[in-house]
Amino acid sequence: MEDPDTRRGMVGLLLCSGGWAALELGFLITPGTLGYAFYLGSLVVGLATVGAWLYFCSAYTGREFHRNRLYRAVAVSVYLAVVAVKLTNPFHGFYFATQFVADPFPHLAITHGVFHWVVTGLSYALVTVGFFMLFELFLEADYDTRPLGILVGITAIPAVLDIVGYVSDLLLDINHEPLGVALFALGVLYVYDEAFLAVQLTDGVDEAVVYLDDDGCIKETNGKAQRLFPALSGSRGQNLETVLPAVTEILQTDEQILERNRDAGAEYYLVSDTSFSLGQVDIGRMVVFTDVTESERRRRELARQNEQLEGFATAIRHELLNTLQIITGRVSVAGDALNRGNVGLAKESLQSTSETAERMSEIVNGLATLARHGQTIDETTAVDLMPIVDGAWERADTDGLTMAADVEGQVIADPTRLRDLFESGFTFAAHNDASTVTVSREADEIVITDDGTPAGQTASEAFFEYGGAIPDAAAGMTLPNLRMLARTHGWDVTLDTEYQDGVRVVISNVTVPGPLEN
């Protein structure tokens, strides 16, 4: 026990308990005047055990009762007053009376008086206060209280033995409490030392905690850890790598961020591993899981937005260069035509220049809109997929493309951005020389498939790069925009590279309101 006050309280409890038991033994084996003195001494030392117990409980639970001068003065005063009554018992007999008997063996039979039962009741009340402090700490630290309950039960057994000895001849009418106190102290030291140490070390730590020995085996876990990782239930003594291999892998990385997919979505935990020692000896490790979901989501969102801004910059640069080249070429053609007196060609070239500039303006406005839509969505709702798909189809420039959809049911999304997502998919299919595009869903996936030009040897990620101009410059931003709009919902978008009859876009991890209908 590294904490000096906790150690001092436990040492006092062991010494008083041992002294109490030794004096009781002396009383049993030494009848007569010496036996009377042994019993009187056991009463004095036994009462001190209550003080040592409360000192230990206060120090162990982080309280300051054992340091409070007023409490200590009152405790010492009450103790000395009761001891005075006990030591003067030969003169007044208020505490107990003795009688020498030979059956079942020669010994002094004790008859306890009223004052003894009053003091015993007060002692048990104080002992209960100590147990209350321990249970409160175990509950606050979110640890299993059953081991502590077992120890409490063992400590309470002597009270039952006292009552049996008082009302019957089955047991001697003596104090059996040294047995319970000794068993409790030994239980703390040897049986449940891991739990007691883990609770004390993690007092005030409002996180999931796994306590390991120096070999990496699980010694104790709190309730939050078991709720976060159900596999920890009943895992005491097993190696952490066997029970939670993902956690072991995370501890070997620099990032140490663990992602957990729960019912409410992805959650993120900072995994910290701290070793602690007693003197020069390593006695264990504490693995703490700190919930950093909000900050990690903001960090990832910022990284996504930075990547998106870089893509926007690339797209705008690409479009500007293309447009400037086209405008420069068309103006040059118009100038040459005018020099040759070909007014019609000059007019046509200048009209083409105007259309190109207008197209550039539309692209820039579209990028500005996407920049606003690129923020992570704060509010979503359950929307029917089919009306969204139909609305996107009406808005898309499909140029003779046909569409078939089988998307019954709902998803959790922003309706406007979801419509824009499908519109981007349909526009891409039209530019990909497709004749038909289909939309389907299964579980948490939405799939957009066209029968146009296959990806072939083109890397799948090239389809999602701004400025990549796939399949052509006019539609080069459709799939990047589709992925961006999906990511604002927390979804993933990939290209099915095994599909060779066209292009198949797979939107996965789609948020759904409940069980899906077939």
From TrEMBL:
First and last residue of the signal peptide: none
The keyword Repeat is annotated on this UniProt entry: no
InterPro entries recorded: HATPase_C_sf, HisK_dim/P_dom, HisK_dim/P_sf, HisKA_7TM
Keyword terms of this UniProt record: Kinase, Membrane, Transferase, Transmembrane, Transmembrane helix
TM region positions: 12-30, 36-58, 70-88, 114-135, 147-168
Matching Pfam families: HisKA_7TM
Domain Histidine kinase N-terminal 7TM region: 7-189
Molecular-function GO terms, alphabetical: phosphorelay sensor kinase activity
Protein name as annotated: Histidine kinase
